[in-house]
Amino acid sequence: MEQGGNYSYSAAPAPAAVKTTTSRQKYRDDGENAGGDALNLMSDPRVVRGSTYAAKVVTATNKADLAKRNRPLPRRKVGTRRSSTPPPVDGRAHMDIQTDDVLEELTDRPIELDAETQTPALVDRPPSPLFVKARIGHDAETQIMSGDLFNFDLEVEPILEVLVGKNMHTALLELMQEDELSAIRLQQEEFEGIRNVELAEVQRLEAESRRRGQEKERRLAQERARLAAKRALEEKIAARSFSSSYLGSMHTNVFDTLIREGFFYDPLRKEVEDIFMLGVVNTVKEKADAYKAAEEIGLELLESARTFARNFGEEAVMLRRLLAERLAREAALRAAQDAEVKRLAEEAARAAEAAEGEAPPE
Q1: Which of 150-154, 254-258, 280-284 has the lowest mean pLDDT?
Q2: How many independent structural domains does the chain possess?
Q3: Domain that holds residue 313
Q4: What are the pLDDT digits (tens) for 102-161?
Q5: Same-domain pairing of 26 and 141
């Protein structure tokens, strides 16, 4: 029923009725079941398993246990009490076993996993706790006799078959793997032998080819040396024949050529040309160099005199201009002073006339 966006129930919830005829309290104490009814913690739906942050998962076994617990208890006589688990026989002890459909790993502490998340800075409200409905109704119990849940001789047979079959299968796989490895090793050794024979043959062929190439290079070098020696011999023969034909006619003309080229000369003429004329030319050159140096010095003096005269004229013009400007400023200053004196005199005269006009007659 919806009223203003909220849901309400047709009947208000009411607490369960509390029995007052017996001494049993509303909630059981911790030591109530110490020596009484049997309690299996592995099938108790009130025991939380796994992560306490995850939603509570209800399995088929838990649903069946809840249905059993929610069934109304049969009426029994006052003073009667249901028997607990029978004590173990001599030499044996009871132990907790798991009877759920889905096997769970039993550990001393739950598995912990580290996880990180990024929370917005503005979110200050903590997450809402998981809603757990308050317990209502009555608890129910059952008794399990020895041999009702587990028959070791009957139920261990498939497990042993699986273990033995798995071991046999693993042993057969290992044996087949060893046979395969041995076959691969034999094939590899055969391949290595064939490859070594082929490699030796290839090396022999390469060595033979290398020897043939070296022999060919030696023959080519010998042929090139023979051709070079033959060419040098031909050049020597041609040079000898040319020199013999050239020197035959040169013997008669050698003295004429030496005289024409100056190898035979007059000692007096040679001395005059090489010694006397050389001194005369050097003396004339020194005098000419002195005259040229004096001419350059004179030109430098004239250039410095022109530069000094030009600078002196510019300075004189600048001084005349400065003097004219100063005289003009002084004349203007004197004119201003004369005008100021004249103005003051006029003001004094006007003041005197005004004073005479204002004086009372006697």
Answers
A1: 254-258
A2: 3
A3: 265-321
A4: 666 666 777 788 887 776 666 566 778 888 887 787 777 877 777 677 778 888 888 999
A5: yes
Query: To the nearest whole percent, how much of the chain has pLDDT over 70?
Result: 69
- The 3-state secondary structure of the chain reads CEECCEECCCCCCCCCCCCCCCCCCCCCCCCCCCCCCCCCHHHCCCCCCCCCCCCCCCCHHHHHHHHHHHCCCCCCCCCCCCCCCCCCCCCCCCCCCCCCCCCCCCCCCCCCCCCCCCCCCCCCCCCCCCCCCCCCCCCCCCCCCCCCCCCHHHHHHHHHHHHHHHHHHHHHHHHHHHHHHHHHHHHHHHHHHHHHHHHHHHHHHHHHHHHHHHHHHHHHHHHHHHHHHHHHHHHHHHHHHHHHHHHHHHHHHHHHHHHHHCCCCCHHHHHHHHHHHHHHHHHHHHHHHHHHHHHHHHHHHHHHHHHHHHHHHHHHHHHHHHHHHHHHHHHHHHHHHHHHHHHHHHHHHHHHHHHHHHCCCC
Q: Does 156 reside within a domain?
A: yes
The structure's pTM equals 0.22
Question: Is 144 in the same domain as 1?
Answer: yes
